[in-house]
Amino acid sequence: MPEGRGHNVCSITSLTLPISPTRVTPDTLQELDPPQPAHQRHHLLLYKKGVSHTGEKMLFWVLGLLILCVFLWTCKGNLKIADITDKYIFITGCDSGFGNLAAKTFDKKGFHVIAACLTESGSTALKAETSDRLHTVLLDVTNPENVKRTAQWVKDKVGEKGLWGLINNAGVPGVLAPTDWLTLEDYREPVEVNLFGLISVTLNMLPLVKKAQGRVINVSSVGGRLAIVGGGYTPSKYAVEGFNDSLRRDMKAFGVHVSCIEPGLFKTNLADPVKTLEKKLAIWEQLSPDIKRQYGEGYIEKSLDKLKGNTSFVNMDLSLVVECMDHALTSLFPKTHYAAGKDAKIFWIPLSHMPAVLQDFLLLKQKAELANPKAV
Fold first, then answer.
1. Residue 139: closest CA among 163, 112, 170, 167
2. What pLDDT, in 10s, does the model give residues 326-363?
3. For residues 118 and 172, what is the distance between their CA atoms, to the nearest angstrom?
C-alpha cells in the first residue's frame, strides 16, 4: 500500500498463532491449581461444614413448621360451638337412611330437631324412638305450597332464634340405566326431588337461617363429581354441586356457612338393588327391538354380575355421613366439602380430578359388554 504523507498507515497481512498439542500431566494440573496452604484448607472445610449445618437447621425448622401447621389445623377443626340445646335444625328425608339416623343423633345431642318425613308411617316410627324435643312434619319437597306452609310453621316454632341448621337430605335415585333406554320423563323425578325440591326448601328456609347466622348442609353425592351411571340422578347431583357453590359465596356476607357432603356408595333404601332391578326390567320390556339386539338379552344379568364384584365399595356404616353433618353443624370452622365413605375418599373423589381418558377407562371397565353395538 502506498504511503501517504502526514498519515500513519498500518497493514496487517496475517496473524499466525502456533498451537502444538500438549500432554496434560498431574504436574501440569498442579501448576494450574497449586495446593492451598494448610490454613486456607482448614477455613474452607469449616465453611463447608457451616453451610451443611445451616441446611440441616433449615430442614429441621421447615419440618417443625409443617408439623405445627398440621397440629393447628387439627385443633381448629375440633373447636365447637356452645349452647346447642337452644338451637333448632331442620332435616328433610327423615323416613329412613341418613336423614333418619341424623334426626335421632342430633336429638340425643340436645338439638331441637324438626324432622321432615314424606310418609305418616315414617313420622310415627321416628317419634317413637326420639325425645319430646323432636318434632316431625309431613313434607313433599316437590310441592311448592307444602314447602311454603312448612316454612311458615317452622318460623312460628323457632321464633326470634331463627334456624341454626338446614340439612337438605331428601333424594331419590330415579331410574339408573343406559341413556338410550330412557325418556325425558325418566329424568324428571330425580331432578324434581334432588334439585328443585332442594332449592325450594332452601329458598323458603333461608331467611330463618340468616337470622341465626347458621348453617346450610346440602347432601350431594360422588355422582355429583363423576357420571357413574346413566339416568337423572347424576345430572341432578351435578346441579346440586353448582347450586351449593353459588349459595356458599352469596351467604358468606351474612355469616351463613354452606357445606356440601358427597357420600360414596352406601347401603340404604335409596340404593335398594331389588328396586333398581325392577325398574330396569320394566324399562327393558318397553325398549325397541333394535336396542334389545344391541345390548343383548343377558345384558341386565351381566350388569348385576359386574356390580357383585364391587361390593367392597359399598359402605355399611351410615354414621360416616352423619359425622360429616355433625362437624358441619357444630364446628366453629366447618369445611366447604365433605367426602363420606372410604370409596369416596380413596377412589371416586380423586378420580374426579383425573383426566377424562383415565376416568373413561376405569368406569367403562365396570360396564357389561354389549352383544352387538353395530346392530343399528
1. 170
2. 999 999 999 999 999 999 999 999 999 999 999 999 99
3. 12
In a domain, 109, yes or no: yes
Contact yes or no for 252/216 (Cβ under 8 A): no
d(CA 280, CA 278): 5
Which residues constitute the domain of residue 229? 82-365
Does residue 21 fall inside a structural domain? Answer: no
187 is catalytic: no
d(CA 21, CA 16): 16
Q: Which three cell numbers stand for residue 62?
A: 421447615
Number of domains in the chain: 1
Alpha helices of 33-142 — where are they, by DSSP H? 38-78, 97-109, 120-128
**pLDDT exceeding 70 applies to what percent of the chain?**
82
pLDDT at 78 over 70: yes
Q: Coil, strand, or helix at residue 242?
A: helix
Q: Examine residue 225 and state whether it is found in any structural domain, yes or no.
A: yes
* pLDDT single digits (tens) 143-179: 999 999 999 999 999 999 999 999 999 999 999 999 9
Q: Round to whole Å and give the CA distance between 190 and 238.
A: 12
Do residues 159 and 86 make contact, with C-beta atoms less than 8 angstroms apart? no
Is 342 inside any structural domain? Answer: yes
CATH code of the domain containing 359: 3.40.50.720
- Which long-range contacts does 134-139 make (Cβ < 8 Å, 24+ apart)? 134/103, 134/107, 136/94, 139/92, 139/170, 139/201
204 phi and psi, to 5 degrees?
-80, -30
Q: Which of 191, 144, 141, 206 has its CA nearest to residue 169?
A: 141
List the catalytic residue out of 47, 88, 187, 233.
Answer: 233
CA atoms within 13 A on the CB side of 301: 4
320 exposed, middle or buried (CB, 10 Å; 0-12, 13-18, 19+)? buried
Q: What is the pLDDT of residue 52?
A: 63
Which tens digits make up the pLDDT trace of 42-51?
555 655 556 5
